[in-house]
């Protein structure tokens, strides 16, 4: 599951529970609820930091054990597809959220967990532990449409996308910075979160208009917004 806490100008969405932080339907629903609360409570000068308890994983992706518990291959695929579809509104909510967003990764971010991190404006990661990993080719699974578009939208280097999507490379923090996927790395989970707080406070201090911020973000990723069904909004400037 997850918790949502507001400290000053910053919202903290924290994945809780076991160390893997698998994205089960219940966890995904709890994230959607938390993001709805952020949207409703956000003011000029707010920012969101998403992180996770523990030091092993940010999120290890979809709950494959829950999918396999269906008892048949078709049932497992149906459950996996259910999770894929249910994560899509999470990505859409983050792309349209009227506040700056930061993912502070205390450990590994794999598959759907990697996608969750990429849905934020900024990603901060540990240098001493943790990798980014898209496991689809290793598992024999194609990429869902919005996963592929997210990769094209957020990872500008063709060779970096190839390594992520076609080689299933496990990318450590400093390499992720060189590939342009991660903004900065820090030497512990504690320092990663502290750096995210500093960045969040800097961004919140600008007191931007949230609706304008969200529309500018959406305009940066038109293909992604198209597949997510996010239409542009007309905002009348307040001159």
From TrEMBL:
The keyword Calcium does not apply. It comes from the Eukaryota. InterPro entries: ClpP/crotonase-like_dom_sf, Enoyl-CoA_hydra/iso. Keywords: Lipid metabolism. Coiled coil: none annotated. Signal peptide: none annotated. Belongs to the enoyl-CoA hydratase/isomerase family. This is Delta(3)-Delta(2)-enoyl-CoA isomerase. It comes from Rhamnella rubrinervis.
């Amino acid at each position: 599951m997850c918790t949502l806490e507001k400290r000053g100008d910053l919202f903290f969405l924290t994945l809780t529970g076991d160390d893997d932080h698998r994205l089960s339907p219940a966890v995904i629903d709890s994230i959607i609820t938390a993001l709805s609360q952020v949207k409703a409570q956000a003011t000029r000068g707010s920012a969101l930091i998403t992180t996770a308890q523990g030091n092993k994983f940010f999120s290890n992706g979809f709950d494959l054990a829950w999918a396999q518990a269906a008892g048949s291959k078709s049932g497992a695929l149906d459950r996996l597809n259910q999770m894929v579809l249910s994560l899509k509104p999470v990505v859409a909510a983050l792309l349209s959220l009227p506040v700056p967003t930061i993912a502070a990764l205390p450990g590994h971010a794999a598959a759907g967990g990697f996608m969750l991190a990429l849905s934020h404006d900024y990603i901060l990661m540990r240098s001493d532990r943790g990798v980014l990993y898209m496991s689809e080719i290793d598992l024999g699974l194609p990429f869902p449409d919005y996963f592929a578009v997210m990769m094209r939208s957020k990872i500008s280097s063709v060779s970096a996308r190839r390594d992520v999507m076609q080689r299933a490379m496990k990318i450590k923090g400093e390499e992720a910075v060189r590939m342009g996927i991660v903004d900065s790395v820090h030497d512990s989970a504690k320092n990663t979160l502290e750096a995210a707080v500093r960045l969040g406070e800097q961004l919140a201090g600008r007191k931007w208009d949230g609706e304008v911020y969200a529309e500018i973000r959406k305009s940066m990723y038109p293909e992604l917004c198209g597949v997510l069904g996010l239409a542009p909004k007309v905002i009348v400037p307040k001159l």
